[in-house]
Amino acid sequence: MAPIRRLVVCGAGLIGGSFALALKAAGMVERVVGVGRTRSSLERAKALGVIDEIALDWASALHGADFVLLAMPVGQANAVMAAMAPHLASGTVVTDAGSTKRDVIEAIYAHLDGHLSHVVPAHPIAGAEKSGADAAFATLYRGRNVVVTPLPENDPAAVARVREIWAACGATVRDMSPQDHDRVFAAVSHLPHLLAFGLVHDLAGRANAEQLFSFAASGFRDFTRIAGSHPEMWRDICMANRHALTAELDQYLGELAYLRALLMSGDGKRLEALFGEAREARNRWAEKTFPS
Fold this sequence. Notes:
The structure is a single chain. Helix content is 53%, strand content 13%. The chain has twelve helices and nine strands. It has helices spanning 14-25, 39-47, 58-62, 77-84, 102-111, 156-168, 178-204, 209-215, 218-224, 231-240, 242-265, 268-289; strands spanning 4-10, 29-35, 53-54, 67-70, 93-96, 119-120, 122-124, 145-148, 172-175. The strands form two sheets. Strands 3-2-1-4-5-6 form a six-stranded parallel β-sheet. Strand 1 (4-10), helix 1 and strand 2 form a beta-alpha-beta unit. The two termini are 31 Å apart.
């Protein structure tokens, strides 16, 4: 497996920065160039050793680049791809780390239509509630899934290259259609974030918020951990996948209505049965996904 000679990372924070650090640790990259909205964040990434070089424009960033990771919030996809398109060489492999795929793929067809053979969409299923270069670490992707959603126009060699690079980060690479991707992650990722943000916002807006938070303990901490995530990133994700997310929210509202009915009727037997089924499903998933 040949190392990347010049890797360009757009968004050198938790996701992009961890990608760069993982490849450095694996000896799979010679030089990492960072591109971003603010020079201060890029300077911080360089000081931390996440990137080796700062590029203030796409022409200099892409000169001699053989691999590009787009790790900015998905709401920036159109602007970023439009800016990079005139400077992208024909053989440069491009992938992304976006949590939604329909909108990213639309941007690819709109702005990188001359490079479709080498632009391979992907999504690493990893993250944390912290953001920025300070949050990046080399083992973020170890043992985690990365979903690749190839385009019909993709060169098989480019798809294979994206797969092997993510594998070099320690990830398990899986394929999925963009449509299935957005439906699945609306349910298991986007909805939980929406609910966590909503609960914390609700409690914080109450007259006795200070009292409520003073008694919140580990259960509240665990349930709401992801409400500490990057607001701009999650705004973009929720808006981009709002149709699938709304369908999942409607499904969940039905579950809440059923739970409310059990409480109102005092049906403890059925409530306990529901809790038991949920517990078994959750534990099966946890034991399979995070074996001790």
